[in-house]
Amino acid sequence: MEFSVSFCDPFKKDIVEMGDIAKDKVFEIFEDIKWNSYLSKMKDVRDEDIYFSPSFEIENKENKNGLSISAVGEPDNFEFYIFYKRPKMIKSFFGLLKKIF
To answer: Can you tell me the distance from the alpha carbon of 57 to that of 59, in angstroms, rounded to the nearest whole number?
Structure first.
C-alpha cells in the first residue's frame, strides 16, 4: 500500500509535497518533524507571516482516505488536532452515487 505525504510549513505559503512513500515509513517521517521548533519560531513572528499550523498530511493513494495532523499550542506543551479525510458519497439527480473529494 502506498501513501502520498505532504507537510504544511507555517512559513511557506505552498504545501510541501513529500511524494509517495510506503506505509512502514509514515511514522518515521512524522516523528522526524521538529514540532517544538516550528511552534517556537511561530511565537516570534507576526501573524501575517504565518500561513498554517505545522501540519502533516497523509493520503492512501488507493482509496483517497487520509489524515491531517496539526500541532497547536505552546512549544513545550502542545497538542495535535487530527482530521480524517474520506471521499463523500452523494446521490445525483438520477439516483446514482458519486464521490466528492
So the answer is: 7
Range of the domain at 62: 2-100
Instruction: Pull the grid cell for residue 64.
Output: 483517497
Say what the pTM is. Answer: 0.79
Element housing 42 (H / E): helix 35-43
Give the SS3 label for residue 99: strand
Length of the chain: 101
pLDDT digits (tens, 9 = 90+) for 76-98: 899 999 999 887 766 665 656 55
- Whether 52 contacts 9, CB under 8 Å: yes
Query: How many domains would you assign to the chain?
Result: 1
Residue 80: which H helix or E strand, with range? Answer: strand 77-85
